[in-house]
Design brief:
138 residues; alpha+beta; Jelly Rolls; 5-stranded antiparallel β-sheet; 3-stranded antiparallel β-sheet; 39% strand; elongated
Length: 138
């Protein structure tokens, strides 16, 4: 049994979904671990991780618009230290989650045909986000 880890740095362009599936898959392929369990963890409270459709171009926009309707800005949140998108970003992150657990089988993530891994940037301004990958296996 071995375990390895690394940290990805993902540049966002403001509120968006940034697919990072291929970066993670490449790291796993280079790891030499054939079977195991991958944990993907976002080190931020205003960004999150999700697995969703990665084939249809419309999906990211639809997801972001739904989150904006569910958690709108301008609702007079008490916490607005970094602007009107600050607290809504924290709520969106809470709803979508900060970690994923994915089986690795035959040296590849056991994702479904249309599934991809996305970093969800919930803030309006661009950021550089850190995502920790931890792989335990053999």
């Amino acid at each position: 049994m071995r375990q390895i880890h690394t940290t990805l740095s993902i540049a966002t362009r403001g509120q968006s979904l940034c697919e990072c599936t291929s970066d993670i898959a490449e790291w796993i392929a280079q790891s030499g671990i054939n079977a195991g369990l991958l944990t993907v963890f976002c080190q931020h409270t205003s960004a999150s991780l999700l697995i969703n459709e990665n084939a249809a171009r419309e999906v990211p926009g639809d997801l972001l618009r739904w989150l904006d309707r569910a958690v709108p800005e301008g609702k007079h949140y008490a916490h607005d230290d970094e602007g009107p998108d600050d607290m809504p970003a924290h709520i969106k992150s809470m709803l979508t989650g900060n970690s994923l657990t994915i089986p690795v089988i035959a040296g590849r993530m056991a994702l479904g045909t249309w599934q991809g891994i996305f970093l969800a940037e919930h803030r309006a301004m661009p950021h550089r986000r850190r995502v920790v990958l931890h792989l335990l296996g053999e």
